[in-house]
Structures are given as C-alpha cells and as structure tokens.
Amino acid sequence: MDNNISHSRHDQLIEVMLRYDTGMAKQIQHFLKVYEFAHLIGTAEGLDMRTEDILETTAIVHDVGIREALKKYGSSDGKYQEELGPDEARPMLTTLGYDEGFINRVCYLIGHHHTYENMDGLDYQILVEADFLVNMYEDALSLDSIKAAYKRIFRTETGKKYCREMFGIKE
User: How far is 65 from 58, CA to CA, in rounded Å?
Assistant: First the structure.
C-alpha cells in the first residue's frame, strides 16, 4: 500500500471519528494523542508498513466503544469498550475500504486494548504503550503509579524512552 494512501485513509477515518465523537472533546483529544504516539513508536521500532497501518488505524478508533458503553452500561470501563468497540469500528472501516483481514486485526486489538497479558504482536504492545502514555498524563497518575506501569507494561525501547522522558523516570 502506498504510504500516502494510508495517511489519506487515516485522515478520512479521523474525520469519521470527529463526527462520531461530536461533543466529546476529551475523547477526540485522547485518540489524536494516542494516534501520534502509536505512529512515533511504531516508526521508531521499524514496523512493516501493513503493521504500522493497522496500529495507526486502531489507535484512531481504539476507544470507539465508549459512547455505546455509556449508553448501555452507564460506564466507560475498559471491559465495556472491549466488548462494544469492534461492532462500532467495523462499519466505519468497511465503508473506507479496508480489507477484511485488516479489519479483523483492528477489531481484535480494539477488543483487547485493556487486556495486558498475552499481547500477541508488536502492534498490540505499541497500542497499549501509546494509550498508557496518554492515560497516565490525562489521569494525573502519581509518579509511583507511573513507575509501576513502566515496569509492568512497557517493552519497546521507544515506548520506555518516551515514558522515562515524559515523566522524569530514572532507571
């Protein structure tokens, strides 16, 4: 896939998500930050183009289940995002012309992005790291909590570097 086509589709998907999350400025800010960190980490870690595209696409839509979770359960808990997100993302991705295998992987990642064991690919690992980088800041976690997450979650050299630099962690 041509890299420009990929970024064009990402721009289109961002537009779809901006409309989907209308009135939810925090959600929009969140997915854009996760998308950028995922892009930076994935690029630095040398992902092949398809895996990078899956990662970045997933980062854009990773929290798409929040709106439905709030409606159905009155909560945006991660387990509800994982349950409801794939069914929200699939029609968006289909409309934009992503292939079935690609969509299946994106939906798998959405359906597991709050599950931190048995991460079965670098796209999964990087998505979780990017989401943690943003959540730790947005949730104003204590330095002790950030250090614990650093040790428990971060595996890529780039993700670890960003976490250390952002939060002043000394190794």
Answer: 12
Alpha-carbon separation of residue 87 from 1, 25, 28, 42, 81 (angstroms): 25, 22, 19, 25, 10
Separation of alpha carbons 107 and 88, rounded Å: 9
pLDDT in tens, 107-165: 999 999 999 999 999 999 999 999 999 999 999 999 999 999 999 999 999 999 999 99
Its sign, for the CA torsion 19, 93, 40, 156, is positive
113 in Cβ contact with 130 (< 8 Å):
no
Residue with tokens 């589709």: 9
Find, among 43, 9, 12, the residue nearest to 123 by Cα. Answer: 43
Q: Return all residues near 168 (Cβ < 8 A) that are at least 6 apart.
A: 143
Quick one: tokens of 27?
């959600």
- Using the 8-state DSSP alphabet, how is residue 22 labeled? T
Alpha carbon distance 1, 59 (integer Å): 19
Compute the distance between CA of residue 170 and CA of residue 160 in angstroms, rounded to an integer.
11
Dihedral angle at the C-alpha atoms of 45, 108, 154, 157, nearest 10 degrees?
Answer: -10
| Full-model pTM | 0.93
